[in-house]
Amino acid sequence: MTNPYGYINGRVRMLRADLLPARVIDDAAGAGNYAEYLRVVSETPLREDMGDATAQDAGLAELDTALSRNYLRSIQHLRSIAVGQPAREVEALLLRYDVLNAKTLVRGVLAGRGSEDILTALVPAGTIPWPVLQAAATATDVASLAQTLAVAGGKIGGVLRSAVGAGANSLLDLEVALDQGYYRTVLAGVRGVNVRRYFTREIDVRNVLIALQLRGSAPSSRYFIPGGRDVTEADFLRVAGGDNTLGDPSLQAILEAPDLASAELVARRQLDEASRNVAMSDALGAGIVLDYLRRKEQEIAKLRLIGRGKFYNLPAEDLRRELSDA
Amino acid sequence: MKKIVKYLPALTAATVASSALAQEAAAGAATGDANAAGLRAIGAGLALGLGAVGTGLAQGPIGAAAAGVVAERPEKFGQMAIWFFIPETLVIFGFVGFFLLR
């Protein structure tokens, strides 16, 4: 009879109330210089993590560390709240960061980037321990990366190792394999109807984006992610083959974007809206947690972007445009 | 005297019958009172019991959410207590019904 999310969502709603309001983000974006930006951020709940970032000779590295620390603390706090089935669902939601990190590592290793470079691009969240990510960033090839992640990196590491074992070697092959494993795990772990509906939507969107990416090459159904609702494998192959029509108007809007970057932007906005909707309709489920994670991620991404803009004296107009795309 | 003897059985029968009817009526009235009292007691019990069950059903999720909110923001205890106690009105109304029916 009792719903464990009643307690958890009460806490998450309060955490969500701690997120920076749009006014503070605007103030930070409107700061005259980097020092003023730091002052604005230091007057927010992020102040306890700012520490070294506000020191005299501190630069972007210290700011990144501070923002990452705040993000990681929020995620750890969220994980400490949930127990039982909700804890499993929260872990399933956090796998998203494992996939993002695994993709960043794969891209970095394939491009031959240094471990320091790769580490700065990783998101300090998810279920893979940070030392494991640090060790994985030093890998010289994808096989050893997959091995490192599989030993201590949980489910996503296992997915990557299986994909490498099956012969996947291109970036797209590996990314799609990670997505397929991730969505399979998430759909198996998440019970709430509304959250499942959100993820089936996300799968549809991802399939459309992959199909757009595949245009110009031979379409293959091995890149299709099963589990969606509105995009079938036949639709996927049709779109990948150059057809520009889909029954769903919002998915159609993604197809009609002028280029892939714009399509990704349209897709991201649609998913943001979907996560807000699921938070409203799933008051006694994981929807609130899902929405909080997305909002926190956006908050940190925006602060990072503004910090860079202020550090390099980017014109206010350019910064505003970048922020609207974030 | 003969006439009286002649009507005696009828008189006796009438007397006995009227007495029996009076007893039955009295018994019927007593049974009706008992039924009414029983129904009132059941009604009073339902008023109090259902009010309490309704309060419990409402306070369960409110209490869980309030505990979550207070865990993050202890300063919101007073506000959460008000929300938590609002369903108590259900059981208070149940009490009123209970005393009216007793």
Structure description:
- The complex is a heterodimer of chains A (326) and B (102).
- Chain A has 17 helices and no strands.
- Chain A has 326 residues and is mainly alpha-helical.
- Chain A has 2 domains: 5-192 and 285-325, V-type ATP synthase subunit C domain (V-type ATP synthase subunit C fold); 193-284, V-type ATP synthase subunit C domain (V-type ATP synthase subunit C fold), CATH 1.20.1690.
- The longest helix of chain A has 28 residues, at 84-111.
- Chain B has 102 residues and is an all-alpha fold.
- Chain B has a domain at 36-101: F1F0 ATP synthase subunit C (F1FO ATP Synthase), CATH 1.20.20.10.
- Chain B has 3 helices and no strands.
- Chain B has helices at 2-72, 77-85, 88-101.
- Chain B is rod-shaped and about 100 Å long.
- The two termini of chain B are 58 Å apart.
- The A-B interface holds A 1-3, 6-15, 284 and B 60-61, 64-69, 71-73.
Unreliable stretches of chain B: none
Specify Rg of chain B, calculated over alpha carbons: 30 Å
Q: Work out the helix count of chain B.
A: 3
Rg of chain A (CA only): 20 Å
- Oligomerization state: heterodimer
By CATH, the architecture of the largest domain in chain A is named Up-down Bundle
Number of beta strands of chain A: 0
Euclidean distance between termini CA atoms of chain B: 58 Å
Specify the number of helices of chain A.
17
How would you describe the shape of chain A? globular
* Average pLDDT reading of chain A: 85
Work out the helicity level of chain B. over 70%
The helix/strand class of chain B is: mainly alpha
End-to-end Cα distance of chain A, whole Å, is: 41 Å
Number of strands of chain B: 0
Provide the low-confidence segments of chain A as ranges: none
The description of the largest β-sheet of chain B is: none
The first-level CATH class name of the domain at 36-101 in chain B: Mainly Alpha
Short recap of the structure:
The complex is a heterodimer of chains A (326) and B (102). With 326 residues, chain A is mainly α. Helix content of chain A is 72%, strand content 0%.
